[in-house]
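User: Before I run my own analysis I want an independent prediction to cross-check against. Here's the chain; please return only the C-alpha cells and, at the end, one sentence I can use as a sanity check.
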Amino acid sequence: MQAGTVDEVRRSWWVSVLFGLIGIAFGLLTMAKPFQALVAMAWAFGIFALADGIASGLALFDKRVAIPKPWLLLYSVASIAFGVIAIGNPKATAGILFFMLSFWLIVAGVFRIVFAIRVRKEIVGEWLIALSGVLAIVLGVAFLRNPAIGLFATAIWIGAGALVYGLLQVFAGLRFRKHAPLPA
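Assistant: C-alpha cells:
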C-alpha cells in the first residue's frame, strides 16, 4: 500500500465504523421485528429485480450474449414485473413476497442452468453457476411449500448477516484508526 493510501485509510476509519453501526442497527431491528422489516426488504428486492430485469432486457440486443433470446426475455420480464410490483406496493408485496420470489427464483435458477450449459466450453467453473441455479430452484420450491416459515427464516438470516457484517465493519474501522504503514 502506498503512503497516501495508508493515510487515507487511517483518516476514513470512521466510515467503516458508521457502516458497521448502521449494519448492527439494521440487523437488530430485523431480528426484533422480522415481519415489519420485510416491507423494507420487499422494496429492496424490487429495486434489485428491476435493475436486473432492465440489464437482461438490454442484453437482448447484444449479439454476443450466449443465452437463448426467449429465456433471456422471460427472465427479463419476470424480473421487471417483480420489481415494479414490489416497488409500487411494498406493504402488500411483503404479504405475498415469497410467492412471487419463489417463481422468480425458479425462473432465475433455470436461467442460470441454461447459461452454465451454454458457456461451459468458454469458462472454467461453470458448474458453480449451474449449482447456483439448482439452489435457486430448490429455494423457490421451498418458499412455495411454506411461505410463512420462509418469510420468518429469511428475515432472521438477513438480520443475523447484517449484525455480523456490522460488527466486522466496526472492528475493521477501529483497526484502520490504529493502522501504521509497514516498514519498507
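Sanity check: The radius of gyration is 20 Å.
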